[in-house]
Amino acid sequence: MNDQSRLLPNGRILRYTFGERLMHWCAGVSYLYLLLTGLAFWSPWLFWLAVALGGGTISRELHPWAGLLFVAATIWMYRTWSSQMRESEADKQWWRDLPHYIKNEDDRVPKVGRFNGGQKFLFWGFFWCGLLLLLSGLILWFPQYVPWSLRFLRYFAVVVHPITALLTIALFMIHLYMGLAVEGGALHSIVRGDVSQAWARAFHRLWYEKVLSESTARK
Amino acid sequence: MSQVSNQIRRISGHAGSVPGEDFSRDYDVCKLIDTTTCIGCKACEVACLEWNGYSFSETTFDNSYQTMPETSWNYWNLIKFNEHEREDGSMQLLMRKDQCMHCEEPGCLAACPADGAIVQYANGIVDFQQDHCIGCGYCITGCPFNIPKFSPTARKVFKCTLCNDRVTQGLEPACIKSCPTGCLHFGSKTDMKDLAENRAAQLREHSGFANAGVYDPAGVGGTHVIYVLHDATNPEAYGGLPKNPTIPLTVQLWKTPLKWLGNLAIIGGLAGLAIHYLRFGPKSEESHDSPAQGEKR
């Protein structure tokens, strides 16, 4: 996807292509299922989640398959986005100005490109936690095939899986909160793909300027 | 399976004394395995299969009496043979009937996430309820004795029940009934412990087994299956009986401190986000310098 076609005829800007949106929702839907069934196995107080989703047995059978779907979507994201997720100098400044960002003093936050430092952190957080969840999850999927002499692998998996899952829950809660409550227009962008010029200018100024300059250069 | 005991206290409309009245006995049950009088005949294995309705499994040959390496989902009772070389170079054939130990603090039960899938009865029997089991296999990781086994067809986990169905009817477990040498005993924990200690003392004093002793590991709160060993200082020699079994450390971490920390973190996180929204609210596209103004930063 080059940026030349990002300025749409109606004046809005294409933020996420159809492929990116599809990829995001493959990850999102599978993660939501993994979260709900995983929480059911995490605490007896939440076991009703598994019951509501078709019973404990079905939840246990499908949780690993949903995990594979999530990993596939994560690999897809890695191939699509990893080159745009490298931390830049501007991102380092963004982290230093994080208190301003949190307090919505956005005029005191440095201009950022298509993704800000927080979004890049979310991406790499999910990527590395996803890797650890996959490795520990494969052991938990087939504990009966782990020989007794290698039982330390199971002992490792039963703590690594919930710890990494809790880390992704922290990332997920912030991601959901930002997308649904804080940045109006973000949800629309990941569903239909487009954002207003004002939105792009406000939250991703460098990217906005790049899109504009490339579209004017073409004229 | 029945979850009530059948000991009678009162009988309605009954003349005279109640049968069993004032008869006191310890309620918890215990199986005692005296490895020093076991001859490795495997009658207990067959009795276990017969009572629980499983057919004989295919055996493997490894140049010893060992017929298969470990218990399986449909083979709950297996004698472990070890041709043990003593310090003086002589050979000692160690035989130990391996099955669920029915721990007082069961690691399987601690690790299990499914409501009601593992039950510990008041008499100490730990039993799996396959109709509640979700087949996750966490019990396999929780057990320090390598006992719960996954059935690939039922997709649930099975193990020795200590013949809970027989015990609730006042019968001894099937393995006990079949033992021809009397190396297997069944009764209250106190009685079995006494019997075991007496036997161990006898072995120490009269049979030259200076290290003879009783295996009733404290790390899992004691077990409702106990052993008399010729050498209690080296239980590992008896087909890998762990010296100091405990619920694996990571399972304990996961089930207690991590659970509390995680729950607090999730609730704290949700509260933090709610407070942020109340205090700062959504971001505005307008709060930025308008396009007409000059560039900042």
Biggest interface: A-B, 52 and 50 residues
- Binned strand content of chain B: 15-25%
Q: Kindly report how far apart the N and C termini of chain A lie.
A: 19 Å
Determine the structural class of chain A based on helices, strands and strand pairing. Answer: mainly alpha
CATH class identity of the largest domain in chain B: Alpha Beta
CATH homology superfamily name of chain A: Transmembrane di-heme cytochromes, Chain C
- Number of E strands of chain B: 10
Taking the sheet with the most strands of chain B, its summary is: 4 strands, mixed
Folded structure, characterized:
The complex is a heterodimer of chains A (219) and B (297). By secondary structure, chain A is mainly α. Chain A has one domain: Fumarate Reductase Cytochrome B subunit (Up-down Bundle), CATH 1.20.950.20. Helices cover 69% and strands 2% of the residues of chain A. Chain A has ten helices and two strands; from the N terminus they run βααααααααβαα. Chain A has a two-stranded antiparallel sheet with strand order 1-2. In chain A, helix 3 (56-81) packs across helix 6, helix 6 (117-141) packs antiparallel against helix 7 and helix 9 packs across helix 10 (205-218). Chain A is elongated and about 65 Å long. The two termini of chain A are 19 Å apart. By secondary structure, chain B is of the alpha+beta class. Chain B folds into two domains: 29-246, Alpha-Beta Plaits (2-Layer Sandwich), CATH 3.30.70.20; 248-280. Helices cover 26% and strands 16% of the residues of chain B. Chain B has helices at 43-52, 107-111, 138-142, 164-167, 174-178, 189-206, 249-255, 257-279, and strands at 29-34, 78-85, 91-98, 118-120, 126-128, 149-151, 156-158, 184-188, 213-215, 225-229. Chain B has a four-stranded mixed β-sheet with strand order 8-1-10-9. Chain B has a two-stranded antiparallel sheet with strand order 2-3. In chain B, strand 2 (78-85) and strand 3 form a beta hairpin. The longest helix of chain B is centred in the C-terminal third of the chain and has 23 residues, at 257-279. Chain B starts with 28 loop residues before the first strand and ends in an 18-residue tail after the last helix. At the A-B interface, helix 1, helix 3, helix 7 and helix 9 of A face helix 3, helix 7 and helix 8 of B.
